[in-house]
Fold:
Amino acid sequence: MTPISLLIDPIAFNLGPITVHWYGIILGLGALAGLLLAIREGKRFGLSSDFFMDILLLGVPSAIIAARAYFVLFKWDYYRENPGEIFAIWNGGIAIYGALIGAVISAMIYCRAKGYSFWRIADICAPSLLIGQIIGRWGNFVNQEAYGGPVTKRFLTGELHLPDWIVNQMYVEKDGLFHHPTFLYESLWNVLGIALIFVLRRRPWVRSGEVFFTYLIWYSIGRFFIEGLRTDSLAFNGPSWLASLMDALWSPMTAVFQAGFLDPNYGDVRSSQLIAVLTVLACVILIAVRRRAGWSSERYSDPILNRKTGLPAGAESDTATAAAAKRKENQDDPQNQNPTV
Structure:
């Protein structure tokens, strides 16, 4: 039976000819929350708020472009016939793994230009990425996308105890069924991830880069199992052994949930599941290799050094401030015989 309550309008408001979508507002709030978290932790290491503002200003457009390009690439058959929709990101259709690729590349370039280790900055920003994903997934909720396979209303209200405003939004009119709120599952999984990272980064044995790797591992594990519930996964036709391997890894979930339908004509391997598995393996290997080779001698709690100046983060601004004060003192005292050069 169709719920009485109306679905949430994806359009928040109009400013003349400009239409403002909830999707964009929610993504913006996620970016802002992530920025505030990074600034707060960065202050412990002497990093300025401007440093993280610059990362955000470079990272957000890079992430959006890469996320959209990733999504369009895997759905090229559709967008080749509908090129006008390639840039319509307000309707949804961005891939988080693509966003991560874009954000990481831009951050690497910026950190190198500023003289800081990318791994140290990535560790600080790891919770920011998670909070952005926690909030950003609610954009999928408003757009009624990225949901899972069909469930009963009783499951949503009786088993999950969800409020009506979430339950009603999980009713998809085109098929007349309620669906798994996979956006919510991923948001809650990432909340646990932030709690884990907050504890982990205060441990004295944590080396540089390992907080960021932990974020990737945690997120990828959750994404692998949650992705199996979805019915709109990006997919491709892979070898039969690979499809069987992905199914076998996901099989523990069958004790509780049924996998979301994946059209065999579209593909038999969910791309996000494969990337999740590869990401976990790569991160575990990198942690082991970096420790064994001595590439991660710095600890998370160590001061962050600028590799161009050799000074701790923040010391450059302190030195510049002291020099400026000395110059002003010399200008105010014409009798000073030792002007700053």
Observations:
- Strands lie at 11-15, 18-21, 150-151, 171-172, 177-179, 235-236, 269-270.
- Residues 49-74 form the longest helix (26 residues).
- The chain has twelve helices and seven strands.
- The chain has two domains: 11-310, 316-341.
